[in-house]
Amino acid sequence: LFLLFVSSSVFATLAFRPLYYLDILLLDIDMPGMDGMEIASRLGQLNKEPLLIFVTSHDELVYESFQYHPYGFVRKRFYKEELPKLLKDCLKELERENKHFSFRTDGKDIRLLLSEINYFEADSNYLKVFTKQGEYRFRSTMTAVENSLQSGGFIRIHKGFLVNQAAVKTINSEEAELTDGTKLPMGKTFV
Questions:
Q1: Is the pTM of this model over 0.70?
Q2: Fewest C-beta atoms under 10 Å: which of 17, 24, 146, 175?
């Protein structure tokens, strides 16, 4: 686990650039020079974006920060109360991200991080699994996979689709749109 807290020093802020794998990054929204939101906008340069926690005494800036998809917020006046719970939640999320789903296809054993999987789609007696890197097809049932991923952050939105909640951008009674732009239908019994 690698945790970095960045507060008022721009030098300290820039020091994280060579670090390729941060797990959790705490940023003060209001800093002199380069503020926390400007730093957050540069996180895409890292190999893996960390779980981002904004620390602020300006509650009015929380909504503006949503564009950076923070994991959470800590209000400075409640720092001692809010930070321990939020860090505990981050650790649970990191554990979930490091969990795997394994299957066999084309004579090969495949092991994927749950965080890499966008969704599963039923395909007759097979399932297709769509990841950030590509697509696989293997023999199984949606119910079996759903049961094996009960605590993995996946939701059934249709009899033919099981979706990683982290990959959902928007959802309504008609469809779910994923962060990669894919649109999947919502089943009437799953709304």
A1: no
A2: 17
